[in-house]
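Quick one, T. Sequence first:
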Amino acid sequence: MESNDVKISRKKPIFPVTPALQKYLRTYQRDSKLPITYNDLLVFDEAYPIMDKYGKDSLWEGPIYPAERIEQLHNGLKVIYANLKASGNLRIVQHKYIERIEYCTFGNTHPFRIKIVNRLNDVYDYFYVKKADASRIYGLELEEILSPNQVNYLVDGETLIEEHVAGIPGDVFAKMYLHNPEYNPTRIAKEFVKFNERCLVMLLGDMRAYNFVVQITPDFDDIQFRIRAIDFDQQFYEGNIKVYLAQFFKENLPYVKMCMEQLSDKTFLQYQQEEKSSILHRVRSERHRLTDLRDVSNTEILTTPENIASLKKGMSEHFADLNYLNCNTMTDIVELNIKNIIRQVKL
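Structure tokens:
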């Protein structure tokens, strides 16, 4: 594996949710009529900067809402949380209150982060209210279908609600936990190889360390790790193949070095093959949903013709496969990735 810096288009446009995508979301129970929209939360006059626990700017702001709107907003956000977590059962928010609404101008979807607290025991949770972006939604769906992770989100027109994904941010893990003597470095390296493979298959880009989290699960004889994406803004938009390989970002260099130190070429290929086999199993069990997703996304404009031309050339060279040159959309490229996995695993 190797690492170097890769440039990302920070001005990627927001792609609207089309009627065809909305129909797909309704079929798979991802749509919901929400009492509060993203635009409702945008109506504030002032905001104050939020500092992290080290006194540095967190890039999040605390919006200040008129006193007469706060109760309406908080009640609506509790209903949204009930829809997200319990299919609208309001009993789960009976003893909860909204402690904080935070706003971030960094990134494409300018999210709001909502902190909801149980007043009986002070246990809290987060969820996000974002501007709905079709390419991001396709990324969430592919994550649900092709990865080992479950994704929980809802869409209402131009509003996207996402569940908080718990875990240690990848950059924090690399700095503070990566070389913990209690952790098996080979297990971490193995997970990074698998994560890298999934990103390329799904064309999930910009997986810098701060765009994924590391989840730690103690097992009876060792500690298990999983690397999980938390940002889907760069789902099959860029034309540079390196954007879809986490190994090429300088922020991920500590993980790449660990892979090089811990894994031989033989074990590296073995872990790649394991992940391909897992993806194949998921494709078989979710083939109808995957077909529906393909049919919808293939009709939409989700990137530029130049990016498609550049990426299919890069994929063709990377895999030494001229079939990529016949792809007309990013969806075609993902589909060919999956077909190649089916062929390879069957060999």
